[in-house]
Amino acid sequence: MKITYKGDYALKAIFQLALHYGKSDECVMSISEIAKLGDMPVKFLEQILLALRRGGFVKSRRGVKGGFLLARHPKEIKVGEVIRFMEGPIEPIACVEKESYKGCKDVAGCIFRDIWKEVKNSVCAIVDALTFEDLIIRYKEKSLKKSSMLEYNI
Amino acid sequence: MKITYKGDYALKAIFQLALHYGKSDECVMSISEIAKLGDMPVKFLEQILLALRRGGFVKSRRGVKGGFLLARHPKEIKVGEVIRFMEGPIEPIACVEKESYKGCKDVAGCIFRDIWKEVKNSVCAIVDALTFEDLIIRYKEKSLKKSSMLEYNI
DNA sequence: ATAATCACTACTAAAATAATCATATTTATC
DNA sequence: GATAAATATGATTATTTTAGTAGTGATTAT
């Protein structure tokens, strides 16, 4: 039941780009900039960003002052989409999506399959309802709360 | 977001023992018997059953006519318990339970952590509400349905 | 020109996974 | 008491996944 670093970093990178989004189309972020903000290894993040580009999540510009930017508006990118793209289908076990599954002679009669489907649906309901715009709103609320707590010395 | 074979086989083994439960305390199942029913590799299952014994889920008897049986009533064993015991904490990422997490400088301000908590809670709600008695009921309903479908040639 | 930056491919070390193997110990039954 | 059937335990292994690193090439603003 784990998300890998690959998926984690992908989400963080897109989140950084989302925070940075819209100021102007010229406004790209370099890999190293994103890596620094999210505390991620640069060369590993590079691979992830290139994958995200192929997936249509981000766009890139090469050369000096090049970098990455979101290919779509943050409200058009769902968290679940990114997870699925980076990690494969959201399902606790392969038999949920694929009918063929080694460990199961009787897929139709398998009660566990039903449970995994429930789990899958419930997880998908959460991550597919969340866009990166939602995340930004949450983030801003959080940092507002934090700063006001600081202000009043709570 | 995956369950491993270890966890999968553990659930299946306990389910077989649960189906077999209560007929008498003498009524144990051998590893090979369980393995056959669940289509699992015998020696791998052996390790899993021994782990489950240490975890207090099953009891064993050695020697001829030995084997395994549940240590508790099926209604006293939750699916979530077994998953946690075999796979570790149910959480998409380590930062949910543990405060220390390499990939995150700012755990408090991290919006993803909140999402993973939501996911975790929602998954736990499902698997912690399910006992092996529930599974048996589901299973019997299913096989009843199947046999009646056969009967009426649907 | 050149320096900064993305693009791509290949490689690698470590960990996890899914087992197998060998050997000991226990116990019902003949 | 011998034997066979079973669990108990620890070691070993093969494969895959993960999390990177390294190097080289292509592009472009200055």
Secondary structure tally: strands of chain A:
2
* Biggest beta sheet summary of chain A: 2 strands, antiparallel
Write down the Rg of chain A. 19 Å
Note the gap between the termini of chain A: 36 Å
Q: Helix and strand layout, with pairings?
A:
Two copies of one chain form a homodimer.
Chain A: H1 5-19, H2 31-38, H3 42-54, E1 58-61, E2 67-70, H4 79-87, H5 111-129, H6 132-151
Antiparallel strand pairs in A: 1-2
Helix pairs in contact in A: 1-2, 1-3, 1-4, 1-6, 2-3, 4-5
Chain A binds a DNA duplex (30 and 30 nucleotides) through α3.
Keywords for this entry:
homodimer, 154 residues, mainly alpha, Arc Repressor Mutant, subunit A, 6 helices, globular, DNA-binding
Give an overview of the whole structure.
The structure is a homodimer of 154-residue chains. Chain A is 55% helix and 5% strand. By secondary structure, the first copy, chain A, is mainly α. Chain A has one domain (5-150): Arc Repressor Mutant, subunit A (Orthogonal Bundle), CATH 1.10.10.10. Chain A has a two-stranded antiparallel sheet with strand order 1-2. In chain A, helix 1 crosses helix 6 (132-151) and helix 2 packs across helix 3 (42-54). The longest helix of chain A is centred in the last third of the chain and has 20 residues, at 132-151. Chain A binds a DNA duplex (30 and 30 nucleotides) through helix 3.
